[in-house]
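Page 47, continued from p. 46.
Same chain as before, 481 aa.
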Amino acid sequence: MGDYPIKRTDSVKVREKLDHPVIDGDGHIIESRFVLPDFVKQVAGPDVAERFSKVMATPRPGSPKNLFWSAHTGKGTIDRVTTMLPRLYAQRIEEAGIDFCTLYSTAGFRIQTLPDEELRRAGCRALNIMYADMFKDVGHKMTPSALIPMVTPGEAIEELEFACGELGLKAAFIAGEVLRPFPEVEKIAPELNDTVRRYTSIGIDSPYDYDPFWAKCVEMKIAPATHAFNFTGTHASPSSYLYNRLGYFATSGFAAARALFISGVTRRFPELNIGFLEGGVWWGVALFNDLVEFWEKRNVNALLERHDPANVDLGLMEEMYRRYGNEYMTAERFVENQAMFTNDGRTSPGEIPDFVDEWKNLDMGQAEDLLDLYVKPFYFGCEADDAMNYTAFNTKANKFGAKLKAMFSSDLGHWDVVDFGDVLEETHEAVDKGLMTDEDFKDFVFKNPATFMTRMNPDYFKGTVVEDAVAKMIAEPGKAA
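Result:
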């Protein structure tokens, strides 16, 4: 059979005008569901494969309403089947104006969160083996990411070593949070573990220390990316997917980024890049600017100067109560209760309680340190039609004139990409409207998705169609950081 005929779409026309490649930071694989159990059987045997198939076909009990009618049909059928067949996929990404693409799982969203450890780990292992085989002939145009289970650091490290060490996969898809049973419920009703669960961080307040996993990522030169999926918590609806989906990926990424930052992961592992996919960058912009403001007002020195209970002028407060109080807010009652204004956890003057310094994991000396601890290592996957992509490059609004690492992420394969041919053209609308400059656009669709991988692994694009352009970018002073 000959090559599939490539259409000269609007995105192709945009690509033809660029003097640089387009690298997609987040396309998707739509797995052939009838194939995966074969690989589970290969990994763990027929009994596990049978259980796996049943669980994957059954909605989780009590789960909020999830995605429905997500696959393209009718005229869109060709796009649907394209993302299932790597050789066709590698040809047709040109219609989207894309030169090279890193792909992430679809079935993996569910597999990664299975509460049954045997099924979860077997599913991840099977998927990674399947991907390595499926995409072995198209590595010049696209590469799949390894699915990494994150319930414990041990299982994460083991699968990372297998998938990226033995199989040779170059990217990693992690969960930014982990669903775990409530210890109180597990103790008295373990049969409810699958229905009564909560999100727990892989950073702050985690029951596990994930530093060994981050260290392994650095050692193996793998930039992990987290991608939200499960809808849970107090803001989940059993009746509306639209309600559950709106803003949810951003909310999940926001939580993961806060946890990883505040727990000091980026301080302890300065070589590490971390991606937050599909939620856009606007929330990352808000978090960055909030962190600057919070540092300025709530670093230890600022708190000691402005909020230390030891500095309360009790005499002034008593005088004001005496002058401006009333029959129940009297100076005498104030004096009787004045200890509540000075006893806020301080044991003695001059001693700083441990709970006061919430920046202790970051060893920050000034707000500008956020440029290295936040802006440099965090990358934000942005879909083509996200109207807020430009906020990453708004140096007039962002503190210190910062540009955040927003990276073009097509989301090819999923319901919100109506037509392959619209992807790059939709992204370029921000330039057409004057919201991004041509240089911003180059950062967005080329330099940032390239640097996300190459700052840790300079050889990530070796042997691909963008190898020479990426090597030239790395060689430019200041462009590889």
